[in-house]
Description:
By secondary structure, chain A is an alpha+beta fold.
Amino acid sequence: MSSRATFAEISPSEFFYRNRDLAGFTNPARALYMAVRELAENSMDAAELAGTPPDVYVRIIPEGDNPDLPDPKPYRLTVIDNGPGVAPQHVPSAFGKVFYGSKYVLRQSRGMFGLGGTMAILYGQITTNKPVTVTTSPDGKRKYSFQMIIDIGENRPSVLKRFASDADGTTGTRVDLTLEGDYLRSSQKIADYFKQTALVASYANLTFVDPTGQVTFYERATTSMPAAPKETLPHPYGIDVEAFKRIVKSSEEHDMKSFMVTHFHRVGEKIATKFLEFAGVSPRLPPKRLNNVQIVSIVDALQRFPDFLQPDAAVLSPVGEEILLAGVNKELQPEFATVVTRPPSSYSGFPFLVEVAVAYGGKVLQPGMRLFRFANRIPLLYDESSDVSFEVLTEGVDWRRYHVPPEAPVGVITHICSTRIPYKTVGKEYIADRPEIEREIKNASREALRRLGIFLSRKGNMEAVQRKINIYGKYLPLIARFSKELAGEKKLPPYRKLIGEGDTVTEASPGGEQEGGGVLTGEDGPDQGREQEAAEIEQKKIDEFGGS
Amino acid sequence: MSSRATFAEISPSEFFYRNRDLAGFTNPARALYMAVRELAENSMDAAELAGTPPDVYVRIIPEGDNPDLPDPKPYRLTVIDNGPGVAPQHVPSAFGKVFYGSKYVLRQSRGMFGLGGTMAILYGQITTNKPVTVTTSPDGKRKYSFQMIIDIGENRPSVLKRFASDADGTTGTRVDLTLEGDYLRSSQKIADYFKQTALVASYANLTFVDPTGQVTFYERATTSMPAAPKETLPHPYGIDVEAFKRIVKSSEEHDMKSFMVTHFHRVGEKIATKFLEFAGVSPRLPPKRLNNVQIVSIVDALQRFPDFLQPDAAVLSPVGEEILLAGVNKELQPEFATVVTRPPSSYSGFPFLVEVAVAYGGKVLQPGMRLFRFANRIPLLYDESSDVSFEVLTEGVDWRRYHVPPEAPVGVITHICSTRIPYKTVGKEYIADRPEIEREIKNASREALRRLGIFLSRKGNMEAVQRKINIYGKYLPLIARFSKELAGEKKLPPYRKLIGEGDTVTEASPGGEQEGGGVLTGEDGPDQGREQEAAEIEQKKIDEFGGS
């Protein structure tokens, strides 16, 4: 009965091979979706980093002799981009080794774990036993192809064939892999994925060819790219002892002052001097001489020092109010929309920034809240209810305070951009509830909802005014006529202006239902300008009537 | 503007250090909860594997001079178990190296990734910079202590101090670590965790000492342990090419027949012979001579062969109907409860088994469904709405079909046990929607809801009968009296039996409201026996009255 544990070590590939659910490769439907998005995101990142407006082509075709087999079945997935390519010596490891990649720097990018492309290849290999082919041209002159499989136990690529040939003058990378997929059950998510990606990356060309051969093309709306995200130094707030020790280890500075200036985000000479005084450390001390106790005390001071600057928004690349509003108006066609962009903030030394758009009414939105989540410009389509945005919007914000009823047709778009998004899963399905991020989403949402509340309350007021005018419209002609008769006048008093009609005076039939005043109707929905105008007119009317 | 990606490799420790949200160490509240559960689960696994009823002690005390500092603040976490201890040569790697552990075998255990204990230690180290101390005695004679930190960049333990001393005769392991925690915000989850763990592990002693010194003790209700889970061979269904190749590589058999019998779960000589014929492979072929094409064809045949036996339930250790029902009745005190245990099944070669309990009514359950999720006897307390059980119970099952209204006070307990739970996160928050598991939960839930539906419909019938009897009770005495008077009899006819009263014949006051018949009332709630009895009586009554 008694048994003793046996210990063993496994490789990172092995870990994710055994636990592919962790990376989102749960079933053939989800795996196909994940493979598409991971490779497409790598392609978009590569092009953007090189300052090239992305042009990404994705095709899924049934593999094998019988394309009419029912799902799940083997599919061939091809992803081609116009990025800068990959230097050939890096190709095998970049695509065939877990924990080897280009994402392990502090820079806003879609990819975060340097894992997705390799996971897609690994999944294809274990479900179809076919090798992957990666072709890349870093200079547009020559292109290099690698046919390879992953040696999972050893976590290393095993190249079966490699060959070079002339390129057509353009740089870029192409991946061809075969994997077991279920397109029937993933087609909707894949379609949503491209649609929502196009919404926030309107400077990209996206082409998707589905297994039936149908082509969906999202043409870029602009060639003006947002500034490419920059690699950044860690922000001093939230640096832990481990991180500090590593920086010391890799540093070459001879004194603490230049050490601080060189290795931390937005620390200049002035702030460095002030901080070192605060921490009780000599600015001339060589960093390598710091002992353990001093390091702990400095790290503690880093958290407490009040005068560090907030992270620079320049390292982040938000969607921007204009593009976001344009996307929202195009996709949701709301009656009202507003965007709130929060100032940059940080958590654990990583700068981040939250943008929230709230849309109301129109023909697309249905009663109840609909949430669209984005992180570093990628749409998050699974596991909504575990996401920090969902949590904030369902529990952290009191909608009634803003007079937005729960059944109102509201769309909320949240976008978090950061040099490091705290995803809860390797599959990038949802974002952890880091308190700093929670706070920013809350603040942005509240402000956006406050604006919506004002809109709704004005809309409500306008409707009340409308009703009032309808009543005036009904009784004023009578009063006017009676007054005229009592006074023995021949002309009616000029009342029509008051109910928004022209000043041509003709006698109205007393019982007739009057249409409301011109400026206040209009089926195409008020915008804020017209709304304000209407509100002023309303006030004028009320003044004229001496209140009600 | 143009920039090129730079490639780098990172260690597994580094990966989880950078991405600790993946393992559930998101914020000081969640991290404290995670550290408690990961260490407690390792302790329970160790004791159970050795066939010892677990005795686990967990204590959290504020660290430092000022215990009244507000949260978050440093806490010292101590976990002590009565397991078999760890051989001293394994201690540093087992606690200080990611992807090194004892969980990388096919055996049902709480731990799954061999990562949780090391993550707790890593989190403690990076938030407080204090080393962990692990003390263990594998023989009860000597105990060995290791004070160590993790070298994250290299993914290896760095032992600062080690010392040995005499033990007190008992085996076991003790972990002492310091970590930044928020007890205020995690106390409820930690309490729930112990409470729900006690519910399914009633053979364990659990002691929890909270930071104020308050002790909660869950005493074991039984010393009879469920059979210790056994390590098992992979089931042939769902073996992929990668897995098959590895087995071939590690095999020593000289022919395919003994290869099949030796390496696969529930494959005897008869089935092996039949399968090899089915796959068109000679039973005498040496496995090492298989070429790639043959391997792919055999793996394909493994999925299609209809005669493999289902996985043996003996390798799984479910809670069991009796213990589960006892737990449900104790915790939820329902009016009705039922347990459905599905036969063992498998996904991707891993056996699993689903148990579902449904409870209805009583004083604890509130209107609406409340879901309690367990996997390998651990409660899952976070991210409910992303879990396969939640998905099935909210979307996969049509409650109306079972005549269970959505607002009914229902508790559903799902327990999945498997040699490998397909968690979606390293933090073991929720389970992926593998189709096979989804199907089993669906089937179990439907059967349990069907039973609840029958109960409710009987209860409904009983209530209808009750109402009928109330009417009979009101009018029968009158009819009886009028009949008596019309017939000129002196005695009333014996009608009282019909309305469930004793047969002592006394005249009833005509207008008096009658209490319902004896067998059908009873405030303590009907059980199934009484319910059936009541149903029979009901039928008898209806027959006697000639229907209604």
